[in-house]
Amino acid sequence: MKSPVLFCVLGTLILFVTLNVYQTASWIPYPSATFTRESFTDFVSKAVDIQNNKKGEVEEEEEEEKQLSNDVEKGPPIDIGRLKHHGFDHRVAGLSCPAYPGLNEAHYQQVQKEITYWRDIPADSLTTSPYQCAEQQQTKKYLTFEPDEGGWNNIRIALETVVAMAVVMGRVLVLPPSQEFPRMSTHLGYDDFYHLASIQSELASLEVITFQDFLEREVVTGHILADPVTGKAIQPPGGRTDWNGLLKNYESAKQGHGSTLWNWWRGVATPLLWDYGECIAVFPEPTGSREDCAETGGWRYTTEEDENRVQRYLMQIEAEDAARMQKRPNDKRPAWAVRVETYNNRPTPIDAPPVQRMGETLAHRSKLCIYNHTLQQEPVLHAMGEQIGTRFLVHFYAFLFLEDWRHDVWLKRFVRDHLRYVDEIQCAAARVVAKLHEFAHDDQNNPTGSYDTMHVRRGDFISFYKQTVQSGEQLYEDHVKQVIAENRTIYIATDEQDKKYFETLGRHNKLYYLDNFKDLLKDVNPNYFGMLDQLIASTGDVFIGTFYSTFSGFINRLRGYRSQKAQLPGYELGGIKSYYTFGDKGLSYARSMMLNYRSVRQAFWTNEFPVGWRDLDYGLHEDSIKR
């Protein structure tokens, strides 16, 4: 009889501490979403009553607490409109895959834990944009965007950046119409690949709607963006609100239906003219009085002083650069290159002052694109996808700078823990990984069934990036032989159709490709195969990738997430056991760059950087993370 009472007391204390932490840390609970300060307060109050009055039997107390907990977790129903809802038992913590014929259930369950790199941090679900007032509901503001005009992984990079911007801005994210993506067999939307409907119920920080719902609910009704001359509602071209299936991302706004839709919309919404090659997007912490929230529609706007403050950070960095160069009169490199070098294996502390963190994020850029008072007031902002200086082919963490370090790591955790491929893809990858362990297993030499992985990009790289081109013999002699032992099992993700290319490698190692596991993938959408390759390739003990490939880059970020969770060798500095291949000796510096800490630098898309995964759980207690 004592145990339930003790748990109740401890739970009550933990919840009171949580409320106090959020009150003093200026992390803003969202008032009307799934998790609210009021719902937690009610839960605490009822828990205290149970403890003080000791009414009922223990079983009744436990049932009441369980029901209260469910109320907090589930929250009010979310209107997902036309967003797709995937049928798997999706949850934040862990992975729950249905049993699969031919796989040992216990082993399969263990593999699901192995490939799970994300974590469930309930406190993160309470945190919202620094620009949202906790005291009242906000008038809705929106962020629309065009898909990147490149291949899937370029599209993914831009998506992550835009979603992260919507979260930190507190804006509703409007998804583009479903469209044709390169090398995919049908028209698809982002909600085909991500649990965007579920994310809304998981977090207070993000709301997502489709472009069709946005046009029909907000635009043609005149709720927002009325014609400045007539005052009437704005109508889309031809009065069409359903553009699904009509666009091709690689046409962008240059031709076809994309030209019709996006050129019209660019003239309606306020364009977000941020060039990631010239500036970093800075989000100052607003210091205005919360008493102003009632007059601003529930928004906390930055002041002129807030914006001047972050500009002074840049001025200080420039002054420090100049002082550093005065001590190196014979160094002909630009000052930024010398600054970037100072971070090699010396990462800036997670909670360092803003000026120090900005110095590392800035890299070669010399400007700040500030999310200022003017932009904050705009009802709709629009990000363009065409390559005209505003294409977001940049990792979100190398572009977005949040002045408050706590919001910075929270945003990085959001992408890690929530913006991940749908469970259908994750579970299919788990099936293949389970089989790979089985194939690699050897009672004496490899009892754990470990294996290594590679990504070999050929295809268009043979023409576009000739520096990466090499023969199959060179691949083995100059790269694989150096880091992967003889007879090891290797899984290879590749676009090379002629497997003779790997004959030399195959004489020394046991090779497997996705094709070898077709019997495990009969029910999987073929459009998911590229994502499957990434997830599987991220699980090897050693990974060898192709430099310049965003496909390889994302594999390395996934490996970084897993390395941090498992605390693998080198995790303290964000190093991972990954290598890059190259044909041109001029790229030899890339071979082992991922073993160490390197700060972000141009060209950002060529590879990923440890700041995107290193020490993201800093400041969190382990018992605040669900398993």
Automatic annotation (TrEMBL):
Q: What superkingdom does the record give?
A: Eukaryota
Q: Name one GO biological process term.
A: fucose metabolic process
| Molecular function per GO | transferase activity
Q: Which residues form the signal peptide?
A: 1-27
Segments for region (Disordered): 53-75
Q: Name one Pfam family in it.
A: O-FucT
**Which keywords does this chain's UniProt record carry?**
Carbohydrate metabolism, Fucose metabolism, Signal, Transferase
Keyword Signal applies = yes
| Compositional bias ranges of the Basic and acidic residues kind | 66-75
PANTHER family with a match to the protein in the record? OS07G0633600 PROTEIN (PTHR31469), OS07G0641000 PROTEIN (PTHR31469:SF8)
> Know the name of this protein?
O-fucosyltransferase family protein
Q: Which organism is it from?
A: Fistulifera solaris
